[in-house]
Design a protein that fits this description.
127 residues, mainly beta, seven-stranded mixed β-sheet, 0% helix, 44% strand
Length: 127
Amino acid sequence: QVQLVESGGGLVQAGGSLRLSCPASGRTFSNYAMGWFRQASGKEREFVAAISWNGGVINYADYVKGRFTISRDNAKSTVFLQMNSLKPEDTAVYYCAQPLTIWGVAPPARAVEYHYWGQGTQVTVSS
């Protein structure tokens, strides 16, 4: 049984930073791409960032490019999301996710391509 547990969310002022962590368990972490998504109240879940199994390929949504950094530590079976220059519009529940199958080079960027999800961590950015 795959388990993903996000942590690191909280309340921060605009311009501040947070670092989210998501340790994974249940199967060989280093075989799988990982993704971060977010869902604001009343809105659909949207893609934030994804990283390939070895960290060699990374994709970001345009609205976080230059501010957010996804990384992974395969030895610790953990994926991270460093969020800098936070804006009020970044307020959402943030989820980490893992696909069911092993992908090739490019990590998936659509929510439907992910099978396992964490419970989410709330990020609130005040203006």
